[in-house]
Amino acid sequence: MSAGFSEMDATESKSQPRPFSIKLWPPSQNTRQMLVVRVTDNLTTKSIFTQKYGSLSKEEAEENAKKIEDVAFAIANEHYEKEPDGDGSSAVQLYAKECSKQILEVLKRGPSGKEDKEALVSEEVSAPRDTMFDISKGARSFIEAKEAEETLEPLKEPGNSYTKICFSNRSFGLEAARVAEPILASIKNQLKEVDLSDFIAGRPEAEALEVMNIFSTALEGSEGGVALSEALDTCTHLKKLDLRDNMFGVEAGVALSKALSKYAGLTEVYLSYLNLEDEGAMAIARALKESAPSLEVLDMAGNDITAEAAPIVAACIAEKQHLTKLNLAENELKDEGAIQINEGVDEVKEMFEKFPDRLGSFDENDPEGGDDEEESGEGEGDEHELETKLEKLEVNKEE
C-alpha cells in the first residue's frame, strides 16, 4: 500500500502545471440515471417510431429503461476493459448505440399488454450478469461520503452477482469508509476477489488506520485464510512463504501459526498487511520462535501490532541468529514497543552490522509523525464531457 506522494512530489505538483486529461469512462451513477430518463422519454413521447409501433406507459417505460441501460453499460464496459482506447470515447459511443438499438427492440414489441404482461423486455435485452465491480479507472483521487453513496449503489441491489470488487486508486476518507462498511458486510459472503490497493493513499495516518479497520471489520470472516492455513499445514518443506496483502484477520493468523510451527526449513516469511493484530502476531511469533531456525527474512508490516505483542515478537527475533531482514513498519508499536523489539535486535546486532541495508523500516510506529498530503482533482470536467456526448440520444432508424 502506498502512503501517498512524497513532500517533493507535492511541491512539484504545485509548482508545475498538471497535464490535462479527460476520462470519459466509466460514467457516474448520476450520468447513468440521466440516460435512464432519456430512454424513458424515447419510449413514451411522440416520434415516428412510437407512431408506428405505439408508446409505452410511463411505469412500463421506466422499468424497461433501467434494463436497457444496464445491458448497454455491461456491453460498453466489457468493450472498454478488453480494448481500452485511452479516454473511453469508443465505449461511450457503444453505450449510446446499444441503448438506441434496445429502445427500438422494445418499441417493436409494443406494450406488454398486447401479448404478455410479464414480458417487459425481449430476450435480446436480457442483461449479462456482471460479476466485476471496478471503480479504479481514471486518475487517482479521493472519494468522500456523498460520492461513495452514489458510486457503490449497484452493490446494494438485491440479487446482484458481483464476486469481484476493485477499489484500487480511489482513496477512501473516514466518512466514505463508513458508507462502504454495511454495503461490503452485506455481500462479503459472495465475494471471491477484493482489490483494495492504494485505497488510503494520501490520507493522514490516524485516518488511514481507522479506514483500514473499518474495511477489515466489514470483510471479516477470513474463511479463505483459515482454509489456506489449514492446507499449508501439510507443506512442511516450504522455504519461502509470501502471503502479503490479504484479508486474513486474527482467526486465520492463529490457524497459520499452527502450520508454521512445523516448518523447519523456512528462510523467508512475508506476512505484511494481513490484519493479524496482536493475537495473530503473537501466535505466529511464538510458532516461529520454536521453528524455522534458519529464518533470514521476517516481514510483518501493517498488522496493527501494538506494544502488547512486542515482548513476544522480540523473543522470536532473539532466537533467529541468521536473520538479515526485519520489517515492522506501519504498526502501532510506538516508543515502548519499538524499544522492546530493539532489545531483541541487539542480540543479533552483529549480523545487522554486516548487512546495514537489510534492516527494514520501523516507520510510522512512533507516536508523532507527519501526515502526507495528496492533491486530487485530476479529471475535473470528465463528467460534463461525458454527459455532453450522451445529450442527444437518438433511436437508430430501421434498415
How does this model look, in words?
The chain has 399 residues and is of the alpha/beta class. 47% of the residues lie in helices and 7% in strands. It has 15 helices and nine strands. It has helices spanning 7-15, 29-44, 48-53, 58-82, 89-109, 145-151, 174-187, 205-218, 223-232, 249-260, 277-290, 310-319, 334-346, 349-354, 382-390; strands at 132-134, 141-143, 164-166, 170-172, 193-195, 240-242, 268-270, 297-299, 325-327. The protein has a four-stranded parallel β-sheet with strand order 6-7-8-9, with no helix packed on it. It has a three-stranded parallel β-sheet with strand order 1-3-5, with no helix packed on it. It has a two-stranded parallel ribbon with strand order 2-4. Helix 11 links the parallel strand 7 and strand 8. Helix 4 (58-82) runs antiparallel to helix 5, helix 6 runs parallel beside helix 7 (174-187) and helix 12 (310-319) runs parallel beside helix 13. The two termini are 53 Å apart. Mean pLDDT is 79; it is low at 1-15, 117-127 and 368-380.
How would you briefly describe this protein structure?
The chain is of the alpha/beta class.
What is the terminal separation in angstroms?
A: 53 Å
Q: What percentage of the residues does DSSP assign to strands (E)?
A: 5-15%
Shape: elongated
Give the helix level as a range of percent. 40-55%
Report the C-alpha radius of gyration, rounded: 27 Å
Please tell me the overall pLDDT. 79
Number of E strands: 9
Low-confidence stretches: 1-15, 117-127, 368-380
Spatial order of strands in the largest sheet:
6-7-8-9
Reading the helices and strands in chain order gives: HHHHHEEHEEHEHHEHEHEHEHHH
Structural class comes to: alpha/beta
Most strands sheet: 4 strands, parallel
Number of helices: 15
